[in-house]
UniProtKB/TrEMBL annotation:
InterPro entries: AB_hydrolase, AB_hydrolase_1, AB_hydrolase_fold. Signal peptide: none annotated. Residues 314-324 have a biased composition (Polar residues). It comes from Pseudoalteromonas rubra. This is Hydrolase. The keyword Hydrolase applies. Keywords: Hydrolase.
Amino acid sequence: MRSIKTSNGITLSYQDCGNRHAPAIILIMGLGAQMTVWPDELYFGLVDKGFRVIRFDNRDSGLSSHLDDYGTPNLFKTWLRRKVPFGMQAPYSLEDMADDVLALMKALKIKKAHLVGASMGGMIAQTLAAKQRKKVLSLTSIMSNSNSQLISGKSLGVLIKLARITPRDNCRQAAISYNVRLNQLIGSPAYPRDEHTLREQATMHISRAHNPAGFKRQLAAITASGDRRHLLTRIKAPTLVIHGTHDPIFPLTAGEQTAAEIRKARLKVVEGLGHDFPPILMGKMAKWIAKHVKKAELKRLKKKRKKKADTQKDVQLSVQEKTP
């Protein structure tokens, strides 16, 4: 894996594959998850379809900078800070994490990119698409939402279960067991994975990096962001929203609302999908994303040709007017 350092001193670990001259797709991962959570079947599936694909570890995850100097935030105070102005704010915001993506693009000399974000990564991608419209060619928002307050009774039940099984110590085995149980709770009912497979994956992830305090700092960034629906109305990039019918974290209504707020967004509802990436679906997901990106590229090229033709026409008219 390679890495870059931003102007703010944040180190970002990343993987960059595919033709450097091909359209660039940047994959932005979700809460507490490393870039390796993006399945290889999806990552290399997009590379095989002719794209330059970048995945990276967000700050406070994987091999990127762990911002331990900020300590562990109090999530209740972070939530309350949105209501009553007092005390410390969150260590950083979703906008700061979006700036990390911009820094990565600059370092890799990518002027414009197609963004694909999952869960919290979808929130970051939405923020970029709204505030840096000239840099975002298309947006794909997967299992994400636009309002941190949008939560169902079922989601609350899952979060309570997760809180109960949170390991009290920071040992490796406890972290692996927690990761297994986490993925069982948020997994797709229609595409279950056996415990042995989940344990192998958890062992790989925990062995690569483990940063439970970073998870809480990222969660504080989400909590502090609150309702972002006003941002979505500013998004002009072609948008695809992918959401499962059985997502236990963000209900399907979250995906529907996201698609409704973004102009001309297309919603792809996946029956039986939870809040994970079932390997059996990754070939299809790569196909959906590739089709969306190619359509956005065609639209961009047509717009570019029209602009060039209009410029040439203006030049010709100017010459004719000057000719006696």
